[in-house]
Amino acid sequence: MKRGFLLLEVVLALAVFGIAATGFAVALHRMGAAAELAQRELRITRILESALDEAISEPTLTVGVTNTTVAETGIEIDTQIQALENLENEKGELLQEMYLVRVTAHWFENGIAQERSVETWRYGRMYQPS
Fold first, then answer.
1. Dihedral angle at the C-alpha atoms of 49, 54, 60, 62, nearest 10 degrees?
2. What residues does each domain of the chain span?
């Protein structure tokens, strides 16, 4: 009789351990997926920030759209520079030579087209020597 209880206790202990191990494995998998997603988001954010910094640091801005591809990533970067007309400050004074600089990244992830963009304004003579 005592051996029957010992076998039942071992089976129950293995079942409890199996359930706990499965939960732990699922949690590790989800943590890994979340870390991978965070890493992809950080990578695309760094690429966008770098492209925006490069675009706004040019001495002269040329209105239009340029397209480049980031090597080995398959990410296409569109840089759009647009002149802002009739832009006024809070005193109602017209701001001249202001540009909107927008950088948009396009890529495919899991067969689905993805897109993210960043933008800023820049004064046209900001990086010109005085």
1. -70
2. 2-123
